[in-house]
Amino acid sequence: MLRGNSVDKGRNDMNKSRSKVSSATDSSTLHTNGEILQSPNLEIFCFNELTEATSWFSQNAILGKGDFGTVFKGWVDKHSLKTASPEAGMAIAVKMLNQKGCQGQQEWLAEIKYLGRLYHPNLVKLIGYCLKDDYRLLVYEFMPNGSLDNYLFSRDSQIQAPSWNLLMKVALGAARGLAFLHDEADVIYRDFKTSNILLDVNYNAKLSDFGLARDGPTGSKSHVSTRILGTEGYAAPEYIRTGHLTAKSDVYGFGIVLLEMISGRRAIEKNKPFEEQNLGNWARSFSARKFSQVLNPAVSGQYATNNVIKLGHLALQCVSLEPKCRPNMKDVVRILEEVQDLNDKEGCKSFVCFNGIRHLCSVWMLRKDEGVNHKFVIKSSRKVSSSIMPSTRTIGEILHSPNLKNFCYDELKEATNYFSIDYELGQGFSRCVFKRWIDDKHALKPYRLETGMVKSLSPKSCCSQQEWLAETQYLGQLSHPNLAKLIGYCLHEDHRLLVYEFIPNGNLENHLYGIGFHCQPLSWNLYMKIALGAARGLAFLHYEADVTYRDFKASKILLDSNYNAKLCEFGFAKDGSTHGKCNAFARFLGTAGYAAPEYISTGHVTTKCDVYSFGVVLLEILTGRQAICRNKPSEDQVAEFAKSLASECNISQVPNPAVLGKHSTNSTLKVAQLACQCVLTNPKLRPNMKEVVEVLEELHDYGKSN
Question: Which of 560, 557, 533, 330 is CA-nearest to residue 451?
């Protein structure tokens, strides 16, 4: 743990406003056991100077002790960096590494290697170093507010209680530092935790302790293989399991730190019940919309609900067990900047007047373009003007969609050539070309032309209104590689439109049954890739978003240019997955042939209903038969057909050789077995989507190796 004031070193202007990576070399290099250190920007301190600066490494000067050494407070002259008195000097932090053991030597070299050439406002500044006999010392700027760990968990009454805005400021600063390491310096930090985030006099976050940092993978490598070093509770599970280190390992650590900040709980708490001891595991049991249950009561009332949902979703994405589902640090920074912008907004500059109400106490406003709640009070006054506003069909419904663009109806009309038949894609979709815009906080500038899809919902339907709201609710907040991306929406009089990313290869149903000019049957490996992607999307909805999809079918699995599966149309989705437990009763909405029998008969929705539908889609792939054939008896429908074969131990007859061709192999039988398990009549006997993903991943890996 390091503390200190900011360093104002006259001859080495290290306090730049922008980050940089130094590539300069120095003729005077330092050699230690065959290691060559290039450190032209660092001061080489004399051991006696540091001894005197720290009052001979006095016990009273100790700031903290870590795994690799002890940190002392010292004083030097601001300009000459020679020993000075506390009254006239500048505070520094001196880390003396343990004299015995190669680990301390390696950490010392790593600190000089990285902090000697990297500069960023959110990295702690290394001023210099000292090497004398077995002594290895590092000299840093002093951080007066200690570490984030100390700020969050210290019982010192002199440390102010955490505030929400300050926590968000620290989180954003730490994220920017980590993003700089990943994207500009190609460095993996490897030990991101609260005790390694230092706070300067203004509570700006500074990353410290680069002893475990590693250069990122080179060439075609996707990871760095290394001995497992880190801190329990912060280390990513795949790194612990395999030793494979990637930037996504740091993202996991950041997610844990974010959870510590907003929950007030440590990464590991042994005194909690077993299922709550690991903060990451405990937090994953909540959905983003239930994230208020995770929040620290100490910051209650200091935040807006929409910010909590946004942060909850971000934190849960960061600690996802699947590295591919975690965001990169650039995305994390962008989201935290949005949250901070929402916190910083001033009150609403408009108000609503109501006709016929003599006493108006308070009005809640929602700024539509930013999604911020504002409250203001109009005292009793007869001078307040009033007007009658025309009613709309969306009164009482509030859309929170800060990530979505609000399109103008005329803009979409023009983009789709006035909703021309030539632009129709099917399923109520029209192809469009629209212009995207970005806001650099000073001016709106044209970005690029893109192709998208516009879905126009029926203007005279209560269901379409609910579907429109559901789509914006879910796809406006959820992001996953296997969910279609909703770009924006439009509400104009009775017209409700949704704008999606363009998916060029249609949907799975098109390819299974040759619907459409360009849609042809695919290879077995491609079908398995699509099935795995769709399964991952459903598993994400069930376990990380707490959502039941409710209408999973082949036509709702869209295929991008690389045939990656994207789930679309969330109009029937419901909150609360309950993982097999009985959910609230819901009016039956779904598609015959795909809907689970218990949902049809009782109206009870669980994730196992989605599992049943997934099994039907697998059977469609295996058999080449549609979920429902109107000209066949019920026992010959694809799900019943498969169940009857399974009960007769004839599961090998489920795959259709005419459909699968040369791929009627062992793997197809395993897929058939999985599909038959998914469509079992008893929901308790069906696997969950995590188990489905595991089976399909094994088959996918086997297929690639053969």
Answer: 560
In the annotated binding site for ATP, the residues are 95
Q: Does the pLDDT value for residue 529 go beyond 90?
A: yes
pLDDT digits (tens, 9 = 90+) for 480-497: 889 988 887 887 777 777
d(CA 582, CA 580): 7
Gap between the Cα atoms of 144 and 538, Å rounded: 48
- Confidence label for 699 from pLDDT (cuts 50, 70 and 90): confident
Annotated binding-site residue numbers: 95
Average pLDDT, the chain: 75
Considering the domain architecture, whether residues 107 and 77 belong to the same structural domain is answered as yes
For residue 2, being part of any structural domain is answered with no
* Predicted local confidence at residue 607, as pLDDT: 93
Give, to the nearest 10 degrees, the angle between helix 329-344 and helix 305-318: 170
Are the C-beta atoms of 638 and 623 separated by less than 8 Å? yes
Q: Is the dihedral of CA 395, 399, 402, 408 positive or negative?
A: negative
Whether residues 429 and 287 share a domain: the answer is: no
Angstrom distance (rounded) from CA 6 to CA 45: 19
pLDDT 10s digits, 283-308: 888 765 666 677 776 665 566 667 77
Last residue within a domain, chosen from 122, 141, 160: 141
Same domain, 672 and 692: yes
Q: Cβ atoms within 10 A of the Cβ of 441, count?
A: 7
Whether 191 is a known active-site residue: answer yes
Contact in structure between 141 and 207 (CB atoms under 8 Å): no
Percent of the chain with pLDDT over 90: 28
| pTM for the whole structure | 0.50
Listed residues 79, 108, 141: the one ending a domain: 141
Q: Exposed e or buried b for every residue in 488-502, given b needs 16+ CB within 10 A?
A: bbbbeeeebbbbbbb
Same domain (yes/no): 695, 615: yes
For the chain, how many structural domains are there in total? 4
Same domain, 289 and 211: yes
| Residue 181 and residue 112 share a domain | no
470 domain residue, yes or no: yes
Q: 325: domain CATH number?
A: 1.10.510.10
User: Is 237 part of any domain?
Assistant: yes
| pLDDT at site 591 | 79
- Domain boundaries, position 134: 43-141
Does residue 691 sit in the same domain as residue 550? yes
pLDDT at 373 over 90: no
366 pLDDT more than 50:
no
Q: Where are the beta strands (DSSP E) in 84-227?
A: 90-97, 118-119, 126-132, 135-141, 187-188, 197-199, 205-207, 214-215, 224-225
**Residue the block writes with tokens 């045939």:** 563
Query: What is the phi/psi pair of residue 545, to 5°?
Result: -105, -10
Strands 486-492 and 405-406: parallel
- Per DSSP, the three-state class of 667 is helix
Same domain for 525 and 651, yes or no, is: yes
| CA–CA gap between residue 369 and residue 158 (Å, rounded) | 41
Checking if the pLDDT of 608 tops 90, the result is: yes
Q: Which of 67, 77, 186, 191 is catalytic?
A: 191
Mean pLDDT for the stretch of residues 608-625: 91
DSSP letters, 562-590, are T--EEE---TT-EE--GGGS---B----S
Count of other CB atoms within 10 angstroms of residue 308? 19
CATH number at residue 113: 3.30.200.20
The three-state secondary structure class of 462 is helix
The H or E element that residue 75 is part of is strand 69-76
**Beta strand ranges found along 142-191 (DSSP E):** 187-188
